[in-house]
Amino acid sequence: MSESRFQVALVAGLMILFGLGLTAYKVLRLDLPLTPGESREVWTIESKVSFKPSSGPTSVELQLPEALAGWVVLEEHFASSGFGFTVIEEGGRKQANWTRQTLEHPTTLYYKIQAYRATLDQLPGYPVVNPEAPLLEADQQAAMERLIADLQERSTDVESFTRLLIQELAQPEPRQDAEFLLGTYQGNATRVLLDTLALAAIPSHTVRGIRLQDGRRRQTLTALLEVHTGAGWLLLDPHTGVSGMPEDFFPWQRGEGTVLRVVGGRDSSLEFALLRNSLSAKTVVSMEQRSEDFALLDFSIYALPVEQQGIFKGILLLPVAALVVVLMRILVGISTSGTFMPILIALAFLQTTLWVGLAIFLSLVSVGLWIRSWLSHLNLLLVARVSAVVIVVILLMATLAVLSYKMGLDQALTVTFFPTIILSWTIERMSILWEEEGPREVVKQGGGSLLVAVLAYLVMSAPLVAHLTFNFPELLISLLGVILLLGKYTGYRLSELYRFRDLANSK
Predict the structure, then answer these.
(1) How far apart (Å, rounded) are the C-alpha atoms in residues 66 and 88?
(2) Burial code of 51-62, b = ≥16 C-beta within 10 A, e = fewer?
(3) Per-residue pLDDT tens for 128-182?
(4) What distance separates the 2 farthest-apart alpha carbons in the chain?
(5) Residue 117: which of 63, 45, 62 has the closest Cα?
(6) Confidence (pTM)
(7) Where in the chain is the domain with CATH 2.60.40.2250?
(8) Of 279 and 252, which is predicted with more confidence?
(9) Architecture of domain 38-121+259-279
(10) 3-state class of 51 per DSSP?
(11) Which of these, 205, 298, 208, lies nearest to 256 by C-alpha position?
């Protein structure tokens, strides 16, 4: 064995052992599940309060969520950032309070929880309070009374009255009174619903919460409508009228009250970052409590803000796709259009789904090649030609997105996930390859790129792979060692064995 091969083998072996050793430590010592089937679906929800300072002392009050509808909160974490901090509990509600005497710069405060839904329970009982009539202008009151009279004429009870009201306000072209009220309320249909129900002497309030979407950033609170029918509380979607608590809804506040109140600040906002992960409740609590003691070995990404965790959840899959490319090119001998093109296409497939992504890719490349062939007759310089192809690809993507939206194909709207610059370079390279080598070579490299991209997508989309890369990122060190070993392979590829099969048979 040459000195170079020995060095690579030694370094690769140490990397593989180091990654596997850290993984074994986290499984045996920290009790992390090695497979996603051993754990619960745990949501990490991080709220971000941003504001700019104004004159005087600063006080920030954030209403904290209650464990409702079967949800269980495992852990809470607050980031005070030099503020005084207290948690106040009044009337069964908890409220976080940050205070500071002076503040000079824009500030962001964080509150993070980890929770899972143990059971699909509905909301518990709630006190019934007779509503007070809303304060309205004379024309608003007249319009609302006419709307109430019309709905009462067409309904039989509180539930049917509320559903008809939701339907009336959700119409694309509501009738005159409903349209006038929506206009005076600046399109806030939920506020119109609450005031109309209050004027009709029907107890109601909102249930504010978060629609759970994995990896979503800058999510805001949405509201469900809860109405007392006389027999009990009924929860309704204020836009569709669908009853019941959605499975993807995390309730944050039930009833009236302000979720966020900032004194001594301006331009305040409340946003949420969401991340779903498969971990046992015991594991999540253990990692939160022991992260400082095991910071050297337990180098997980849980210490990062949730927004960055969601980004890394996708990035950590890229080395797996790189391994697929290495295996297919070095051991199998499949030609691809560049090294990174199949990886980026596979990453786009994760967002668009496989068949939709394939259709989008083939459409863009086909039309792009046709337009590129026309540009070749203009004898443009390389930089100008590639820039023109980039603009054409962007226009094609925008056109496809608009057409998809008009046709109701929501999945095709994710066309923006395709890497524009890489697509443009692929079209340019394929066009030059067509001119120099002919269409056969274009089909060979283009088909090879798609085949490798599909295989990489199938591996990346496997739940086990996503679980291992996110919870055991140290395995990527072992993967790097494997790639280093493959990089020294100089034997026959599978495609070459197939090419020279006649020589083997002739012996």
Answers:
(1) 13
(2) bebeeeebbbbb
(3) 888 888 888 889 899 999 999 999 999 899 999 999 999 988 888 888 888 898 8
(4) 102
(5) 45
(6) 0.62
(7) 38-121+259-279
(8) 252
(9) Sandwich (2.60)
(10) strand
(11) 205
